[in-house]
């Protein structure tokens, strides 16, 4: 039972960590959601802004000035939290691989292997919380920006919704949290 639970938690943690990495690297955290006739599709991300022409499919991306330049708080905080979550999830995966019962590393000391799995669960839980805070922070800021424009009756012809990268970050963080719960609460 313990080995099956460990492998299940590892598979979930691996998939969720890949989701977190994809969310951090991709640039579609915020998309335009205009209901009128669109000629382009705009995605804003943590690293750049991309526009795709809907008629010919040409995609152009503008990098943000510099990583050290002044950026909006939502971008800086989300970058920091997502990168930290990625690093913690990667560390947890490495620790979990060494702690799995099916791996021959430290086979003669099962107590240490169990502690490694538990430690991986704690690290994964910390990373999942940081990733969820970063994703939700960005989503709430997008919502507040849209609500502020609507409350002041400012219509710029386009409004933004959450992009697939934002949803991917939330899904990856939630999956890491579930894997953490499996490792910390259900393993003993």
From TrEMBL:
InterPro entries reported in the protein's UniProt record: Claudin, Claudin16, Claudin_CS, PMP22/EMP/MP20/Claudin
Signal peptide start and end residues: 1-28
UniProt-listed Pfam families: PMP22_Claudin (PF00822)
Assigned keywords, A-Z: Cell junction, Cell membrane, Membrane, Signal, Tight junction, Transmembrane, Transmembrane helix
Membrane topology: Multi-pass membrane protein
Transmembrane regions: 118-140, 162-187
Subcellular locations according to the entry: Cell junction, Tight junction; Cell membrane
GO MF entries: structural molecule activity
Keyword Transmembrane among record annotations: yes
Any one Gene Ontology cellular component term annotated for this protein: bicellular tight junction
The keyword Transferase appears for this protein: no
Family stated for the protein in its record: Belongs to the claudin family.
PANTHER family named in the record: CLAUDIN
Function: Claudins function as major constituents of the tight junction complexes that regulate the permeability of epithelia.
Protein name: Claudin
Taxonomic path: Eukaryota, Metazoa, Chordata, Craniata, Vertebrata
Chain's gene name: Cldn16_0
């Amino acid at each position: 039972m313990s080995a099956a639970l460990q492998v299940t938690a590892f598979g979930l943690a691996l998939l969720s960590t890949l989701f977190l990495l994809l969310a951090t690297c991709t640039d579609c955290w915020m998309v335009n959601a205009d209901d009128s006739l669109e000629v382009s599709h705009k995605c804003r991300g943590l690293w750049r802004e991309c526009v795709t022409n809907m008629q010919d499919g040409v995609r152009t991306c503008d990098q943000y000035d510099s990583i050290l330049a002044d950026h909006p708080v939502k971008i800086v905080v989300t970058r920091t939290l997502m990168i930290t979550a990625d690093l913690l999830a990667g560390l947890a995966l490495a620790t979990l691989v060494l702690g799995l019962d099916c791996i021959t590393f430290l086979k003669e000391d099962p107590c240490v292997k169990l502690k490694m799995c538990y430690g991986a669960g704690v690290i994964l839980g910390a990373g999942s919380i940081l990733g969820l805070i970063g994703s939700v922070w960005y989503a709430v800021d997008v919502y507040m920006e849209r609500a502020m424009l609507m409350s002041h009756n400012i219509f710029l012809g386009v409004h933004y919704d959450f992009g697939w990268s934002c949803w991917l970050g939330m899904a990856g963080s939630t999956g890491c949290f579930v894997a953490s719960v499996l490792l910390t609460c259900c393993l003993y």
